[in-house]
User: Fold these one by one.
Assistant:
Number 1:
Amino acid sequence: MSKNNMGKVLAFLAGAGAAAAAIAYFVRYKAFNKELEKDFHAFEDEELDDGDEEDPLEDLNNPSHRNYVSLSSSKDEFKAAAKDVKESVGAAASAAKDVLKDTAAVLKDTAYEAASAAKDTAHLASATVKDTLDSYKDKQETVEQMAEEAASEIADAADAISDKIDKALHEDPKETTTVEEITE
């Protein structure tokens, strides 16, 4: 197998490994998004089941449902509001942390699977190349043996012809040698 064909085979196998890794990543990413969307809808359904059947935006449009902080609020009211904001930010940060952990786990698994697929593909390619090389080496040895045998036969035939020519030159010219005798 020439170097050009070997390079094409290796490039094809590398491309196939990359495609397999991309497909595995895409499938895992899609499954993760579906699961995340299902969890999100379940979370929305839980909020609606808690007794809040009204749209939260409608509450903001109705002035009687709005909560205002008066400018003459006491320190206790500001502390309570700050505590509520702190708790909300903490819950959001915790949720973001969990999402990032899950995303990192999915990416780690996907990268591991892609590396494993690439490794397996490389092993298969290496074994295929080795088998092909061994096959060509066997064929080359056979051709070399056949060439040696043919060269030996040609040398023997040339020696025989040379002997016949020498014999014909030293014989009496009256005796003629036919072409058939020379080639025997």
Note: The mean pLDDT is 78.
Number 2:
Amino acid sequence: MKYARLGRSGMSVSRIALGTATFGVAPQEEEAIKLVHAALDLGVTYFDCANTYGDQARFNRPGAPPHDQRRSAEEILGTALAGKRHKVIISSKVMEPVGDGPNDRGLSRRHIIQQVERSLARLKTDYIDLYYMHHPDPTTPITFDRIIYLNPVS
């Protein structure tokens, strides 16, 4: 496997990442876990997720369990990486709707912090290496006073 620096982060990642958007659907959970383990065996160290992957109705497909009977992609990835978290880089995203309420989407500070906490629980970890916006949010301006440092460097 070849590795590269991830921007100016100082982190090195495998040049091949494993995306998890359809985990729980295709592949279904058991096969997704096997896929993560096979990727690790091949040297993959970068896994991409989002707080809305896998267990939403938009991912429903014939032959897969319905969304309300699936675990999220983050939960599946967290299970697959048990005991191996320290060896990998995980990215996740925020912005998309996670409910029907007016604050259940977007890039407000409230929504970001809430979704980080939920993602950490689903991933069974105490840190996410790279967290970014899934899409721009036209209702939340991106300015320097909106940058949120979750783990500031002193």
Note: The chain is about 25% helix and 15% strand.
Number 3:
Amino acid sequence: MDCSEYFPIWDKLTPVQQNKIRGSAIRRSVKKGAVIHSGSTDCTGLLLIRSGHLRAYILSEDGREISIYRLFELDICLLSASCMMQNIQFDITIEAEKDSELWIIPPENYKELMEESAPLANYTNQIMASRFSEVMWLIEQIMWRSFDKRLAAFLLEESMIEETGRLRITHEKIGNHLGSAREVVTRMLHYFQKEGIVKLTRGSIEILDTKRLQELAHT
């Protein structure tokens, strides 16, 4: 997979600029659970996901996690290189949810290219705006949607990602994604089980009634 596949404005870059991107990109393999970027003081660089899944999340003062977005094949992670943008820093952590393959473009190289190329700078701003939209959407979900609806939506999303109705995921991990305590997740899952929506077994959740989950998630 070539770096050109990540940039729809690739043909607007000069051959020299294209070679700078290709020449500076570092290929990296990461194992499931590995932390790739941690905090605003860490400036890893621009991440281009070749394969696998990444999760970006923030931590509360008491150590509680909440996912702000997830990244898949052909996605670009810009917040891991926020240090290259003046007055913009994000205290986020990025970890691999699965074994993943990445290209990493050092922030100083990418910043130099943005200063040279207006199309690249504009595209980078579009990515940043998209991420901000995702964060605002997340805030709205937390503030205005009840936890049962958020949990139903998460189970549907996870089922689609994993392509199975039997999810191998712990209640604690779900809590980390949704910014909630494990006990709250467990209580709601037991309610779903009582209603015949899911079946709980040790280490897994089986979705029994997708339609009910969809109705609940979209209410």
Note: The longest helix spans residues 118-144.
Number 4:
Amino acid sequence: MKKKIFFAALVLFIVFLNSMILIVSIIMLRDKLSAVRDKCLAEHYVIASSLIGDMQALEQRGNHVEENIDDLMRLYSRYLQGRGNGLAVAFSGEWIYESPAFASEGTMIFPPDTGYSQERFVYMENGNFPVLCVYGSFPAPWQEYGLMYIGNLGDTVQSWRHTKNILFLAGIAVMLMMSFFLFQFLNIIFRPLRQISGTSAKIANGNYGSRIPVRGKDEISSVAHNFNLMAEQIENQIKQLEEAAEQKQQFIDNFSHELRIPLTAIYGYAEYIQKALLSEEERYECTQFIMSECSRLQNMAYQLLDMALLRREGRKDDNCSVKELFAESEKVMQVRASEKKMRLTYALSRNCIVRGNMEQLLILLNNLIDNAIKASRQEDEIRICAYAEESAVVVEVEDHGTGMEAEQISHIKEAFYRVDKARSRTAGGAGLGLSICERIIQIHHADMSFISEPGAGTIVKLSFPVEGKLFPER
């Protein structure tokens, strides 16, 4: 409907506008030709009067006019030739003189028959060049002579065409503006229906947050209001389903990733019990460690479930000793480092206290150490240290491995992102380690930064804000 109205109104406007421009152009052309006609008549009268005086003077000196007509007309022709005009003289119905520019055209066949009257004829010739001709006979005793004034209309016609083109261009501009304003006007009229249709299509395509602006209190506003209520209910239900699915998927991904490190340690101790000759005390210590790691796996599962359900909020009820954190990490990660023939060095000048959850912090630290092991070569040293810095406790994990580019650092916290995809596949990584670390950092309101260069290794710096005492009382 809107398109039909738009095109019908536009066609009517175009026809009206072009008709008006055509009428104005014709009127302008008539005015210009009338002005040229008056000018040509005036110049014809002046030249004819002057030429009669010259002819009288020539006869008084005993010379024939017909024989000297070229000399008489040369000055007048030279004067008019610069403006594109010309002259021609007739005697007894035959041309005895023509301006050179017009004589070469061959369009002037015979003089008009005036019956030797002094009435002047004005007419147009539209040959190669449009001209306006004014012809008139001389008074007695020169009535056999006639003068043709030929006015060049090229400039006049060109000027009119230029003006006409400008008018049509202006008409096109007006037409475009009219089309724009007409289109906007129709948009305002059809906006409510278009909004309802567009919003329905968006919701059908899955954009459940789309709403219709409600204006006024008419029937369309009532329909829009009820439509928005329906869309809001649908959006809330879809969000609940998406959040539930996302929480479940995060739990599965994170828990599957975190199972690997404790299971590696458990398998290592179990294999050690199976293959080595151990005393009862050593066997008891190994089984005790296995039970401890199994308990940690159980706690880890609950912690990951809490992270999936609570998102960025977690329990931070304990005062965690960094020394104890390093000791627990060393028990697990030394086995992992020994398999790769690497050295782990834990450095702590003075024990510090961090407010947080020990299990989550252990997951954080072990993930960073595990990434350092993957990035390092055999017999490399990985250094883990902690120190106090103003009102924060800083933990650093430093390796001398492959390092990273600046662009890679900006993406490493994204889930499933791998710096070296081939190496990660070999090591069995899923690309979730740093994503889990980032979640734990957010829960503890801490900060994690990376300093790395290709081939020069990486330093991961964890900064935990501390309220109260940094160090435990002795």
Note: The two ends are 86 Å apart (CA to CA).
